[in-house]
Automatic annotation (TrEMBL):
Monomer. Its cofactor is Mg(2+). This is GTPase Obg. One of its GO terms (biological process) is ribosome biogenesis. CDD domains: Obg. An essential GTPase which binds GTP, GDP and possibly (p)ppGpp with moderate affinity, with high nucleotide exchange rates and a fairly low GTP hydrolysis rate. Plays a role in control of the cell cycle, stress response, ribosome biogenesis and in those bacteria that undergo differentiation, in morphogenesis control. It comes from Myroides phaeus. Mg(2+) binds at S176, T196.
Length: 335
């Protein structure tokens, strides 16, 4: 999938169908000139459903679907015949999609399972025909109920990527390179910041045919929690990851400081993200000799307060298997 085809945010106007009118028909046939009421009920208006589909990874198919309307219910007929129900509309979305009311910002629901089906706009109920209103004092009622009106709503569909491990780091920290080495994903890689503008997913093949999913999230900058840079467009994707892999390059001016800035951006966006398992990877370590590594370890042990870390180099394939082993252990430690 190309980067331009990854769409994780769309706005859609949805409208259910209105209910059909009840009939005011009076029974007439040969030899029966003044039969009683036999008006049928109106049909139900169509619903608009949102359904989870594990085969979808993006909201791209909804990018140009600005208006989605269900069918109106049919009117009731004679002989107590009920009008046809309006045609339902189904919107398929990838797992991890959050549905919000555009007006209020309220989260209506989230779709997290394949086949999960929720009504976002309920069709109007059909009106009752005059047959329901007959009585001993009013044997030929000439009125019936109108159908209930349709429901109209502007909704926001927001995708939060479902992955086991999320890569967190400043631009150009080597996240895309790591993803390309440990998975079969082919993210865009270059030596300038913000190469990655959309999340990339990859499946890591582990021992004994096991696997887990890793997500390369666009790089953080200071102030991202307030919406600077790519802001909330990437931070929401990290919420779904059970383990966070922080990545800081070995040539950074201050590794601990960069790690703490990344951590603070997550805390300001959503403090609950600090409850996730964390691992710090010092990337691009092929440029370090053993003596320099030993010095850095001594400093990191004193500054990181027990945060697990490891040295890796995706380009030189150093520490890749150890990284997979560590991540697999973290992902399965609570199971």
């Amino acid at each position: 999938m190309t980067e331009g085809n990854f769409v994780d945010y769309v706005k859609i106007y949805v409208a259910s169908g209105k209910g059909g009118r009840g009939s005011t028909h009076l029974h007439r046939e040969k030899f029966i000139e003044k039969g009683g009421p036999d008006g049928g009920d109106g049909g139900r208006g169509g619903h608009v459903y949102i359904v989870g589909n594990e085969g979808l990874w993006t909201l791209f198919h909804l990018k140009f679907a600005r208006h989605i309307k269900a069918g109106h219910g049919g009117d009731g007929g004679s002989s107590r015949s009920t009008g046809a129900d309006g045609e339902d509309r189904i919107i398929e979305v990838p797992l991890g999609t959050v549905v919000k009311d555009k007006e209020t910002g309220e989260v209506l629901f989230e779709i997290t399972e394949h086949g999960e089906k929720r009504i976002v706009a309920e069709g109007g109920k059909g009106g009752l025909g005059n047959w329901h209103f007959r009585s001993s004092t009013n044997q030929t009622p000439r009125y019936a109920q109108p159908g209930m009106p349709s429901t109209e709503l502007d909704v926001i569909l927001e995708l939060k990527v479902l992955a086991d491990v999320g890569l967190v780091g400043f631009p150009n920290a080597g996240k895309s390179t790591l993803l390309s080495v440990v998975t079969s994903a082919k993210p865009k890689i270059a030596d300038y910041p913000f190469t990655t503008l959309k999340p990339n997913l990859g499946i890591v093949a582990y021992r004994d045919f096991k696997s887990f999913v890793i997500a390369d999230i666009p790089g953080i900058i200071e102030g991202a929690a307030e919406g600077k840079g790519l802001g909330h467009y990437f931070l929401r994707h990290i919420e779904r990851n059970s383990t966070l892999l922080f990545m800081v390059p070995a040539d950074a001016d201050d590794i601990t400081k960069e790690y703490n800035i990344l951590l603070d951006e997550l805390r300001r966006y959503n403090p609950e993200m600090l409850d996730k398992d964390r691992l710090l990877a010092i990337t691009k370590c092929d440029m370090l000799d053993d003596e320099l590594k030993a010095e850095m370890k001594e400093q990191l042990d004193a500054e990181l307060d027990g945060v697990p870390y490891m040295f890796i180099s995706a380009i030189a394939n150093q520490g890749m298997q150890e990284l997979k082993d560590k991540l697999w252990k973290m992902l399965n430690s609570s199971k």
